[in-house]
Design a protein that fits this description.
The structure holds 2 protein chains of 2 kinds. In chain A, strand 10, helix 11 and strand 11 form a beta-alpha-beta unit. Chain A is an alpha/beta fold. Chain A has 14 helices and 15 strands. Chain A has 2 domains: 244 residues, Rossmann fold, CATH 3.40.50; 132 residues, Rossmann fold (3-Layer(aba) Sandwich). In chain A, strands 3-2-4-5-7-6-12 form a 7-stranded mixed β-sheet, sandwiched between helices. The longest helix of chain A is centred in the middle third of the chain and has 17 residues. The N and C termini of chain A lie far apart (57 Å). Chain B is mainly beta. Chain B has a domain of 65 residues: Alpha-Beta Plaits, CATH 3.30.70. In chain B, 19% of the residues are buried. Classes of the chains: A alpha/beta, B mainly beta. Chains A and B meet through helix 9 of A and loops of B.
Chain lengths: 398, 102
Amino acid sequence: MSKRVGLEASHAAAEAARMADVDVIAAYPITPQTHIPERLAEMVANGELEAAYIPVESEHSAMSACLGSAAVGARTFTATAGQGLELMHEVVYVASSMRYPIVMTVCNRALSAPLSVWGDHSDAMAVRDTGWIQVFCQSNQEAFDMTLWAFRVGEDSRVLFPVMVHFDGFSLSHVTEPVILPEQEEVDRFLPRFHYPFALNPDEPMTHGAFGPPDIYSEAKIAQEVALRKSKDVILQGWQEFGDIFGRYYGPVELYRTQGAKLLLLTMGSFSETAKIAVDTKKDKGKSVGLINLRLWRPFPFEELRQAVKGAETLIVFDRCISFGGPGGPVSSEIRSALYNEKRRPGIVSFVGGLGGRDMSVKDFEYVIDRGQEIMEKGSKELYETVGIRGKVSGIRG
Amino acid sequence: MAKKKLKAGTDLTWMDMDVGNIVKEAGSASARRTGDWRTERPILDKEKCNKCALCWLNCPDAAIRPSKEGFYEADLNYCKGCGICANICPVQAITMIEEAEK
């Protein structure tokens, strides 16, 4: 029997790592991710989890230790946030390029300066192009579910890529919600033992991490790019199998009351739940509006997105990150690119808000919906507009 | 293990790349000219050389090979011109000279 318990997302992720029976955890504590390594260290210390816990001296070392652990075929987990992810940055690329299926939770946090430990998506957007499979969670249940799923997909011999599971710092990481925990037997059925086909082994010597001169580097990178895009099939299969065993079905984009909606709002992470309530209140007042929650971020779900916006006139994209000097929020830029060549596509309005832990209320999302429609009809002088900034914002010109 | 003929990088398409670019054979660098960016080369004075093999022992790239006459000479396909051999030679039989276009 599965059980329903109150857990914060951090502990839900730690619990998923325990039930996945990870072999190695190498992590450095950083707010708001701290509760994950703390809880796992406790589990290893009191015998709840038989694993090696490596208390490293930095995030750079954390990911480096994860490379070594994955190279010998150990199921490997780590977690970080904000500045920690930045410090680990160069090794994050190495993990995906060397095709090590490490699973990493990122409790999304703003980047300094000014110093902020609170949530936004700046850290996630900075690792957009690192070649990891990346998903955003909306709730603590998803934090648990996506962590299990991440091992299943990343370790599949047709994939062999690391997976980043993003959830919002504090608004999920430190908030208790009901989470359904499955039986160990169900988890074992979903997640077979990991057999890394290229594990380092003295009986079969091989080189991992060789040098790539100009006559081979391009071929190596294209091979990696094609493989990441191909992982989409297993990503979908993983969600299907997950649903068949645990009864909760997920997809790359989640559609909320989008049927026939003329105006669509697109959000990622925990704000999607708030935005859904705003959609409900607006719908009650007769507005033709729906929500797209973008769950799969890499590889980008082009097909599902095109399908989701078919028939809509306006698409409002809400970003929790600034792309300084760029064409709009990073997510809105990607959505524009993804739809640019479509014959029939909605007009796209870009909003930025919720930076560095600034809350976005239902009322704020109602404003985004109303103002977004107004911009579509009358235009705006700004490349993107903001929510909740004190003082009239101008000067964001293209 | 049978010695397979190693492919040079330019023979490989992206579809030939192993997952994670793992190299499964040992000594794969021997298929490439890894020393062609050298700026200095070692010249051996066979009159001075006493065949002690210290250069061969100390070459960090195993680019020095024994010859039929018992001398030790750098294979210039692999020698990077670091000069360790010239420095270690107890009888100063090795001199580094600049690679120059001729």
